[in-house]
Amino acid sequence: MPDHAGERLAEGREAEVFLQPDGTVLKLWRDPGSGDRARRESAALTALRSAACRVPASLGTVEVAGRPGLLLERVEGEDLLALLGRRPLSVLAVGRAMARAHLALHGPAAPDELPELHDLLRERIARAETLPDDLRARAQALLDDLPRGDRICHGDLHPGNMLGSTADPVVIDWGDASRGDPTADVARSELLLRMGELPPDSPVVMRTLARIGRGLLITTYLGGYRRGRALDRAQLDRWLTVRAAARLSEGIPEEVPRLLRLLDTAFGG
Asked: CA-to-CA distance for 69 and 48, rounded, in angstroms?
């Protein structure tokens, strides 16, 4: 077990990634209460090692200075969001890569260690502070009517969580992995592509191109996914509504007005 974090390679809203002396990496969550996320990520990665979806090897969960962590095989290469920033015309290749990766990870049944997606979403909808109570009740009722499913769901698949080339990317960041309906997982990705905020330090040119390219990326991604697995648009929209309600629990102020408008429209407000 490492006794210190090491050299920081990357960071996000919830975790930091550090290089270890032996060449592995340590993903360290900021919240000391995120031990379940580390265990969840490890379980998903172990289940997918023999699947068509490329993932880093999990080398075990650890704790450093009271913070939960996961030791991982290091994966070289930039993420596909950075690739889009450098080469905007790669948007079609990135959309197709997302579709292939999602189809591959939805192949295996989820291991028993993963929580039920319905349970996670219900809890997140319940604690979303900016969600009005009437919309909360309607979102929870809609969730109850949606199928549970038994596939591995990534929970946060987008270009920033795919490393390497568009031909054979490695999917990372499995802390939101769960057992559920694949359509629910696609809905989460569509929601992120539609309105997810780019990292604060993103160049102005990337932000400008993102506004132009979102629609094309979504169309390419969904079209590629449909070629491998049936995807009902009405069911996808229902899941999109539930996912929007749950997304409000993540406390990203810039997204709140857009998410509330989506919910108002979905519920006829």
From this structure: 20
Q: Return the domain boundaries, the chain.
A: 7-72, 80-266
- One-letter amino acid for residue 41 of the chain: E
Phi, psi of 167 (to 5 degrees): -75, -35
DSSP states of 18-65: EE-TTS-EEEEESSTT-HHHHHHHHHHHHHHTTSSS--PPEEEEEEET
What is the pTM for the complete model shown?
A: 0.89
Please tell me the class of the 80-266 domain: alpha beta
What would the pLDDT profile of 92-102 be if each residue is shown by its tens digit? 999 999 999 99
| CA pair distance 79, 217, nearest whole angstrom | 16
pLDDT tens digits for range 98-147: 999 999 999 999 999 999 999 999 999 999 999 999 999 999 999 999 99
**For domain 7-72, is the CATH number 3.30.200.20?**
yes
